[in-house]
Amino acid sequence: MAQRCSAGWRAITVGLLSILAGSALAGPDLTTKHEKGRCAIRGQCGKQSFFGSDLPCPDNGPAKAPTDDVRKQLVDICGEQWADTDVCCEAEQLDALKTNLDRATPIINACPACKENFYNMFCTFTCSPDQSLFINVTDTVPKGSKFLVTQLTHLVSDEYAGTFYDSCKDVKFGATNGKAMDFIGGGAKNYTQFLKFLGDKKFLGSPFQMDFPRPDDAEFPDMEAMNKHAHPCDTDDELYRCACLDCGASCTELPEVTGVKQCYVGLLPCLSFAVIIVYSVFLALLCTAVAGHVAYQKHSQQKNERLRLLQDLEPSDDEDEGDIVHNVSMLDRPTKHYFVNTWCDRLFSRLGYVCARFPVITIVTSVVVVGLMSLGWLRFAIETDPVRLWVAPDSAAAQEKAFFDEKFGPFFRAEQAFLVNDTHKGAPVLSYETLDWWFGVEDQIRRLKSSQSGVTLDQVCFKPIEDACVVQSVTGYFQADFANLSPSSWQDDLLDCVDNPTQCLPEFQQPLDPHLLFGGVNQSVLDAQALVVTWVVNNHAEGTPELQRAVDFEDEMKNYLKLVQDDAKSRGLRLSFTTEVSLEQELNKSTNTDAKIVVVSYVIMFLYASLALGSTTLTVQSVLRNPANALVQSKFMLGTVGILIVLMSVAASVGLFSAAGIKVTLIIAEVIPFLVLAVGVDNIFLIVHEFERINISHPEGSIPERVSRALGRMGPSILLSALTETTAFALGCAVGMPAVRNFAAYAAGAVFINAILQVTMFIAVLSLNQQRVETNRADCFPFLRVSKADPGYLNEAGAGEEGALQRFIRKTYAPAILGKKTKVFILAIFFGIFTAGVALFPAVELGLDQRIAMPSDSYLIPYFNDLYDYLDVGPPVYFVTKELNVTERRPQKELCGRFSACDQGSLANIVEAERKRPEVSYLAAPAASWLDDFFLWLNPENEKCCVDKRKPCFANRTPAWNMTLYGMPEGEEFIDYLERWIEAPTTEDCPLGGKAAYADALVIDAKHNTIPASHFRTAHTPLRSQSDFIAAYTAARRIAKEISKDVETEVFPYSKFYIFFDQYTSIVRLAGALIGSALAAVLVITTILLGSIATALIVTLVVAMTVSAIIGSMAVMGVSLNAVSLVNLIICVGISVEFTAHIARAFTFPSRATMERAPRHRFRGRDARAWTAMVNVASSVISGITITKILGVGVLAFTRSKIFEIYYFRVWVALVLWASTHALILLPVLLSLFGGKGYVDPESEGGLEQDLRRRQYPALLGDDDEEYDSDD
User: Fold this and answer.
1) How far apart are CA 585 and CA 562, in angstroms?
2) Quick one: pLDDT at residue 696?
3) Which is nearest to 1104 in space by CA: 1073, 1131, 1128, 1076?
4) What is the dihedral angle through the alpha carbons of 319, 322, 327, 328, rounded to the nearest 10 degrees?
5) Of 1065, 1040, 971, whose CA–CA distance to 1011 is shortest?
6) Residue 1099 · residue 1151 · CB < 8 Å
7) What is the pTM of this model?
8) Helix and strand totals (H; E) in the chain
9) How many CB atoms lie within 10 A of CB 1222?
10) Closest Cα to residue 461, out of 506, 418, 497, 419?
């Protein structure tokens, strides 16, 4: 189509510049006289060569009056202003003039001002009676008895030339969605370039050289520049005024876009500024409160001293002051029971007794249930389609994509390559040798055959016209034939092609856009740093054999280009590429390295669990005393079972959800084992540690009774953490993105099943293990009895000695953080961290860079780097209309843009006006309006377009075709003409035919006389970052919403990338809702299980502060917000509760014996309970939760996948850091200040002696009282 247009324009140029009249003279009649009424050239004196065009004769004679027939013909072509004047042209010239102007008309007809100026220019050049005033013949050659003009000077005023160029520069040629200036002016950027293009002598161009010097009285004293009235495109004359689509000056100014700019105070976002101000006020109030308290204390102390002096108050010798102080911490000890905790304690005690009493039945039942759930693996399926993975099926973007594919067919498949000079940065890539090599590469690709089905490029490529594939490449300028490239002139030839793309058409006959071919251009394409090559392949519906053929060829092409990469490297070049199938393959690539990391993480966790669990009863001293004890007291079997339970829970969860039809993703396969491992091992530590304490405090009880007591004590804590974690994970199912939703479901199921197995199957194994220990049988080999082991080992004095960590917490750490001054400092620091985290919220970027989602060694990463660095065009975008009856005049006005009757807010006008402000609209191209081009096709001036019985369709129509749409077809007639137009080919005689450009742009329902769907194509500006893509999608949504206000139907934007960015329009709001819901769930669950709204609020606050610190860390560590990181944040809420739950419960249900032994003179009430909580469980939180999380997460640092390293490893490292510090430092301080009421621990009943026997540290029963007494 475009080639025919360009060929037509070349014919126009040849014809218009050779239409001259005159008679042969004896000698060259050069333009010696320059005066009104005198010609400069006239007549056609023959051709200079056999294939050349007719050239004019020089004729400086006077203008003559034409005959009546010539006069009528001239007026019909050029207008009434030629009705009463002499002329320098004759009948044969006017025939040729009309033929050539008719060919130009379809290109410029949309803008009446441009068309009128164009006609005026050539009518004046051909027929003006004052030719000699602005035309001067400068060179001729003899031809027989005649002379041929080969060069002349044509003076055109700057005013006319400037207005002429301005009126045409924005005119859009709808069939190519390009500019008419590319055809009539070679893409000129100003009027001098425009005139030069018109006058340059070239093959298939101007037959003689016509120079357009700037008017100068000194150089051309007798001449006057042609300066007829030129119509500006925004003229007030409605007859010539152009539409906004073709004339930027005619566009109305759009209202300013609101909501784009963010609120700032100086350089700070308003949110950051506000929280900093609030924290400053908080800090000031805190300092004021501290200063006031200190002053009040000093005043009270002085007052008490004065009273003591006045009253001579002394303590009585009979008072046992030490006893009073010793019991001060017990004055506020809890005395009430909490029925929920008591019920949970009894429930877990009963469960523990049954499981320990019947361990084999419990284990077999657990294995059978897990086995039955794992039968779902028979329906195991992995989802690999990126669209199904990352797009919610009910999202607007997904539904719109389905509509687009159904109505217009799937979007084209694209294979693209970048060739970059790799010798040094910024070096030009073009050279004769490089082009020689690349021509060969492309030729080889054309000959490639897929190994699967023998498919070639020619069989799968997109062919808009005839039988040529669309390949956007620099080779297209030379028709993909290296023989057309001259070693000496290839650079000049290339520059000419870039300047005049219509002169160098590729095989598929459409002009090549240099922005699509060259990247990193500075001053000229010869300086380009990269060559861009794009092969366009037809797409088909999923599951069709045609699609499989395309995929087969893409696989073959991918393998070949990988080989070419090595060849390019040897030439100092770098080749990066992608095929349509590449992204899906790379996103779903499973690597051996990652499989090794999974195995390594489980081995490390197994070793740690076994050693740490064994350390509860096995000390270095006992091993040195009797090495045989190590064989009995080690807990490798328990560690193995703990890891096995994690694997069982993952297997059961996958089986359960696979049976439900929920597909697995690679994120599930690779991340959930880490997650469940990190979460699931913690409870094992807590259960084993508590059980060993029960063994010490109640050695007389049976094994089931001791297990029952241990689970009764720890069960409610496990319930609290498991419930909050499962609830928080399950909330992730609210995210519409399937990969994330499925991940959340699998994780919630695995964590919940893991908790159930731990309080059943693990308890049974723990019972069997204790039987083994008490019968002195070897760990891992229970059939072997170790006779040399100490039989009464558990009653040894050193068996229950507290470790260094426990002693440090009791003697140093807990008293230190609960000091009054330390509390103030801790509050100031942590609320400062909270402030910093919230202040960094605006710095968290949105998006998920495709480069991150792939393995770090993927061949696509260099491609995406080059794509962002070098591609200078944006992706196409379509504005789609649904069910609009365009056969009626009202909807026609709502869509069109080229006619005076079009609505100011019509689709075409709004898109064009938005294109004028690309910084907010991200639109770079005018809309290709099928409706405008259809109506222009009906214009009878386009005599070769719509033809009935050899006459233009609308030739004698009443009313005549006009720019007001009055008289345009409607109803059934509209559909009849539309169906003819959509089948009309694009030819040089009629480039407005709809088949090539719009065959897939609209759906015609002839039965109901309506258009069920149509689209209007434009393009985005170059998009070079995730923020650009998100902003472009948001802008397109806004524009479609504006269009819908005027158009009586739904209008939506569609581009291939939109489907992946739809989530970002609401992800911030969704993140707030999900995290808020998770925190609300934490508040409700902790309130119910702890029985205190104050304590629950503190736990929720600490979790919220932890999450805010993690979000702030995301901004610092470069982790953007997307559906993956959002689910991670929900996970962070659940795991943060695990850090805080055990301490909060130990505070609410304090151990009576531990609380009684709190340091004298220091703690009472909430302080004593906070100290008790830290002494009881802080060491377990560190060894059983913090370290297991570090080990479970740390191995992710070695993964090859950047998405795991960034979105899991970094976030989870921040989680472990902030959750542990907030739980171990801030939480006890807040509890000591504002904690809720406490309750009696049911396990503490039975008298003081029993409580002391149940103490965590049996050493305290003896002579350690002095240690406690000294802890001032």
Assistant:
1) 15
2) 78
3) 1076
4) 90
5) 971
6) no
7) 0.77
8) 51, 22
9) 25
10) 506
